[in-house]
Design a protein that fits this description.
The chain is mainly alpha-helical. Helix content is 46%, strand content 0%. It is built from three helices and no strands. The longest helix is centred in the middle third of the chain and has 19 residues.
Length: 99
């Protein structure tokens, strides 16, 4: 059994806990070294990707937050339907009796 197999066994089933630990460590380091926050965030994202690769979990696509990449293309709006939605008229008020 190789080293990576041991790591996979330790991480499997605990992905969320490992990622939470990565976040806590990166937050602590960022509080001590605020001018390196961008590099620390990048490193923690890479560490979380490594956890996903180890366990075979699909990696989510990240949206760039630093403005270095292109903005994601929004999904097109659904086409309007050919028939307009039905509109029900308001109910008529019952006649009032004045006695």
């Amino acid at each position: 059994m190789g080293f990576l197999d041991k790591v996979k066994g330790l991480v499997k089933g605990r992905e969320a806990q490992v990622k939470d630990g990565i976040d806590k460590v990166s937050d602590t380091v960022e509080s001590k070294l605020p001018k390196h926050a961008e590099k620390i965030d990048s490193a923690s994202d890479k560490a979380k990707d490594a956890v996903d690769k180890l366990t075979g979990a699909p990696t989510p696509t990240a949206v760039p937050t630093t403005g270095t990449g292109a903005a994601p293309t929004p999904a097109p709006a659904p086409a309007p339907s050919a028939t307009p939605p039905s509109v029900t008229p308001p109910a008529a008020d019952p006649p009032s009796s004045t006695t």
